[in-house]
Amino acid sequence: MPEGHTIHRLAADYAERFLGQQVRATSPQGKFSDGAALVDHQVLDTTEAHGKHLFLGFGADRWIHIHLGLFGKVGFGTAPSPKDLRQAPVQGGPPSPPTDTVRLRLANPDAYADLRGPTTCALITDAEKQAIHDRLGPDPLRPADDGGRAWQRISRSRTTIAALLLDQKIIAGVGNVYRAEVLFRHGIDPYRAGRDLTRPQWDAIWSDLVALMREGVRHNRIDTVRPEHTPEAMGRPPRVDDHGGEVYVYRRDRQGCHICGTEIRTAGLAARNLFWCPGCQGAGGAA
DNA sequence: GTAGAATGTCCAG
DNA sequence: TGGACCTTCTACG
């Protein structure tokens, strides 16, 4: 479920519940028991996101590095955590859910956070953390980051803009949904080579990503349709099948484009599904 | 019940 | 380029 907005939201959500406090850290699943033991009873002093990477800081030179991959998820709840319930079952209460997939649980007297299914959950040093930053491109959600750095790479590349947008070395945090949607919003053919974009086009894409992804953090979901294209504005049924966000093309293949009615198309590109509207994003097309 | 897909990334060949 | 990996949910028997 995670694109960059999810990770930045998680950084804020962990901070809200645990920052500046000693936490209990455990690995009910067992795969991170050693790491959890090293931060157990330590104070969480920093939470930070860069692209799809999340860092939880516990004092000098000690970070938990989390990458959710395709399936990872964090569930927050109020204390007691499910495991605690199991240890002291409430008489007549509901059966506690299974917890054996929880890689990392952070808990304090008021709240818990359960991490499941991450690609990465590891204890790292400052130097290892810096190495991760060094191989990531600018992130539209990091205020100090600058799209110009990405342009240096894009403007010299023969690779398609659709592939470049997913390359985390070039721009960090964009995933399959934002890539499809931002190209649609700017009327850009996904197969156009990076070097065939103009600087103004790239600047517009970058600032649009900043705005869209900030909204994504606020609402914890991806919405990309402009006000005039919402279900209410157009009198069309809202999207129900998906994660709730209103989009133009992502997973809308074989349905009509909200703007021009052309059938949305899909194709594999670099092992991911690409979605676009041939009408609005044809050669030189502008939405 | 079981297969397949899913907003991601790495590595071997 | 294909497979491996991590988990959850849906569609289909």
Automatic annotation (TrEMBL):
It comes from the Bacteria. Residues 82-101 are annotated as: Disordered. It catalyses: 2'-deoxyribonucleotide-(2'-deoxyribose 5'-phosphate)-2'-deoxyribonucleotide-DNA = a 3'-end 2'-deoxyribonucleotide-(2,3-dehydro-2,3-deoxyribose 5'-phosphate)-DNA + a 5'-end 5'-phospho-2'-deoxyribonucleoside-DNA + H(+). Coiled coil: none annotated. The keyword Transmembrane helix does not apply. It is an enzyme of class 4 (lyase). Residues 2-89 form the Formamidopyrimidine-DNA glycosylase catalytic domain. The keyword tRNA-binding does not apply. Keywords: DNA damage, DNA repair, DNA-binding, Glycosidase, Hydrolase, Lyase, Metal-binding, Multifunctional enzyme, Zinc, Zinc-finger. This is DNA-(apurinic or apyrimidinic site) lyase. It comes from Streptomyces endophytica.
